[in-house]
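so the lab meeting is tmrw and i was supposed to have these ready like two days ago... anyway. pasting both below. for each one the top line is the aa sequence and the line under it is the structure tokens. i havent really looked at them closely yet so no promises
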Amino acid sequence: MKVRLKNAVGGLKEVKVGFSWTTFFFGFFPALFRGDLKWAVIMFITSVAIGIFTLGFGAWIPGIIFSFIYNKMYIKELLEKGYRPADDHAQSALQTKGIIAA
């Protein structure tokens, strides 16, 4: 499910709520392409660190974990930067997922 978020100057972003298939398949690259450098670096370092300790076999584990939580973290950061739900559908979807309070 996608929701639309807008900021005070009229900027509009459409973001997906829920599991991140792009993060699942492409790791830190979706965060990098969204301009979310902080989480791209965190995902990359986590994958490298776990890959080193498991001789490369465990480097995919952080990708699976971040697939479940990345979209929620990204939306929360957008909300902290001043974005708000653009319509009632977005408001109710974010409330249902527990991202914003009722």
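ok protien two:
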Amino acid sequence: MTSIIVAFFVSLAVATAVTPLVLRVAARRGLYDKPDGRKIHSRLIPRLGGIAIVLGFFAPVTGLLVVEAGMRVQLTQNETQLIGLFAGGALIALLGLWDDLRGTNARQKFAVQIVVAVLMWFLDYRIENLSSPFGTPFELGALAFPVTLLWFVGVMNAVNLIDGLDGLAGGVGFISVTTLMVMALMDANVLAAFMCAALAGALGGFLFYNFNPARIFMGDTGSLFLGFVLAAFSISTSSKGSTALALTVPLLVLTLPLLDTMLAIGRRVRARRNIFSADQEHIHHRLLKAGFSHRGAVLTLYAVTATLAAVAIVMRATSQPIVGVVLLASALVVFLLLRFIAGWRRAQRVPPPPEVAAVAGERLSKEA
């Protein structure tokens, strides 16, 4: 337990110290996230904050490899998965960094994500069964490989897509990984809990500078890396848990970004648009357009994520998947109700909050 606490505070300290350094370098070199028609912010804000998250996460993990401790033995016993975490994490972070610096298109990012997902499969990050609330889990067999790939690519892109408001992706990630840490502790999976604590600390340190009004964004470096680690952790924390629960608990924890992503894909398919195209119809955009303040929208989505996290904990504590199914259905109703309220309030012509009005005003003046 001591190692877990140390991991959290070491990563917290590293991320807190590195973020302002990255901020100054990004500002000096003009590496800004520029506002456009689909973004909420109306001023130049430095990106690349994800570098601090990556360094904050790997600091205690790397430190454990050189310090004599009981946890080090457990870490080295899982050598294959450790290599996967470092190699896959480094590749995804480099992909995000390249995109933040030079830019890449959706297909290029998608191709690299698939390569990383395949790598993780061969390094023992595998989903080999799916939970059933009514009986024996369904063994995937030959489907295990494509399902694992879909999980990694899906979670990475889901986290990337919700990174649309100050502190949203970081806060949702913090709640999710903290929940996974609790699950790991309940299963006596101390190593997984240590890793989760390291990511939670890194996100906590970054959020000091990223919560509204944000001074820096995590960029694709941070959002893709966060999605990758959450996908990997959800598999590793499930592997030692109840077989009957398998991946159900991680699915609950990550419901918000995954559901928003599925709705976005469905929306674009119906409109016969490229599924990789951007729009302003994500749940956080809808809340802003409905009259929620920036912070109000973020805190509302934090509350939804925390509710889903509580559902996951109850489900794990009771070891009754059917309980989770009922509670998940309730949570989905809440999520869809939020979308309905957002749409209804928008139809009532509620004036948009200042940040949305500013972006709209700039766009109209340019068109004129």
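from a quick look at the 2nd one: Residues 241-246, 359-368 have pLDDT under 50 and may be disordered. The radius of gyration is 20 Å. will dig more after coffe
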